Amino acid sequence: MADARFFDNAGPFSLAQLASIAEAEIVSGDHEAMIDDVQPLQTAAAGQISFLDNKLYVDAFETSAAGACLCDPKYVERAPAGMALLVTTEPYRAYARVAQAFYPPIAAVANIHPSAHVSATASLGASCQVDAGAVISDRAEIGAGCRIGANSYIGPGVVMGEGCDVGPNVTIQCALIGQGCVFHPGARIGQDGFGFAPGAVHLKVPQLGRVVIGDGVDIGANACVDRGTGPDTVIGPGTKIDNMVQIGHNVEVGAGCLFPALSGISGSTKIGNYVMMGGAAGLAGHLTIGDGARIAAHSGVMRDVEPGQTVAGSPALPAKEFWRQFAALKKLARPKKGA
Q1: What is the pTM of this model?
Q2: Domain for residue 62, yes or no?
């Protein structure tokens, strides 16, 4: 079970309740049986629910002691005897819903710590939580139900929608933020973009834009989103940004994008909706990345990417072309017989 020192379990739930939450169908098992926690296949026990989403774990599924499991219909026949099955074609998403039911987000507790500083000209909505050492600056507007973590800084004039969760040691400046956004510890939002006019002495170009963040955006620990030079840096609704990601000034990101750890996006690049990048991928500046494009891990993208296209390598190429070249190079590198 999850360590109760860190996580509060909202269970138990009946199998019927979990099927409704997961949007899955019960094909075996007692609808009224109670399930008290989520667990991986390898460690789950009776009274706990797990999931199977990857064929690599079928062996673990076949020997699991889990009381119930969320799985694809094609694996039903391989379930161990006595395991209740909740069947869905999207078991991982179903598991996410179930896990959220057991461990819902912790709501803000209306309180301003005595060591926090809230400007007299700032406004806080109802039921906000402001932890020790946090600073909310002049004219900042914080929506209802927000939580501002210890030692975090909300700069002058920042606007934040309802239900946002700002972790400890976060800095947010020059930003307009939607509802339900999450900022993990150490995230940096709205600092100067990297703008210099090169010469014998590199001249600083004032960064006069903002960061505009849509609803439901999640920004990871130590990620950085620079404010724009004059145009805004824009992060579309529902986009999820992992730890240690860099997003440069004037970048425009569409809705529902996924940027894993160590990826970087150079200034003024425009990214469409539902774009997915692999870890440590990098995009040059002033590019256009079309809707639904996919960029493989460690790729270096130096040209525009068409909507729906998958690219890989550095410099990035259409994925099939990259793998053909890789195979050809590997063949050339093979030692000749008798050499």
Answers
A1: 0.93
A2: yes
